[in-house]
Fold:
Amino acid sequence: MQSWVFYSLLAMLTGGISLVFAKMGMKDANESLALVIRTGVLFFIVCFVAVATGGLKGYKAVPTRAWLWFSAAGLTTGIYWISFFKAMRTANVSVLSIIDKGSIVVTFILSWYLLNETITPKLLIATALILAGTLLLIIK
Structure:
């Protein structure tokens, strides 16, 4: 198994577990506090891994353009998490997580348009199925 497949599957598994754990915690805390706690834990884990693996070396050599892209990614991640946790307060996490995966369609379009990634028939069919499933849950 290629390493990217392993890490993708690990991300899928832990992402699903993470949502259920967060929803369970929201019985006892509001969504803003839940997000602050989750983000704080995440921050310390990411910092620990970066320091332990030497990932912070060369930060001065990162071009301004990359800093801007990383900052834009951080901003959109913040908006995403705030929106997701607001929705999770009242939604079934099982339905919400499937609708959330509609973001794959946005990623598909932007990766083709901005990154010039190739669209294969298999990728097109998989994306269409994700879009269909998302619409199925949204439309009453």
